[in-house]
Amino acid sequence: MNLGNATEFTIAELAELVIRLPNSRSRLIRLPLPADDPRQRRPDPTVAETKLGWKATTPLAEGLKHTITYFDRLLAERSETARPPRVQRVAPAI
Length: 94
What we know:
With 94 residues, the protein is an all-alpha fold. The chain is built from three helices and no strands. The chain has a domain at 11-29 and 38-78. The termini are far apart. 0% of the residues are buried.
């Protein structure tokens, strides 16, 4: 079942947005497409609407911003737990 959005965009447009939103320094590398690569992909989420009553309502850029924030937070939490505990230095008693 396709849970996508009926709005069409290219993978290159998606990749550019994913790089731009978090101000990433990543660069795209463009390679030739495989011979059997479909030229157009257009999701049809009507089955999800009909059977599940689900419809995409969040615009792509907004959803990506939420996703980026989530992963930024997750990575920050992991880097905090990965740090060795701080050792408190105490002067020797004389």
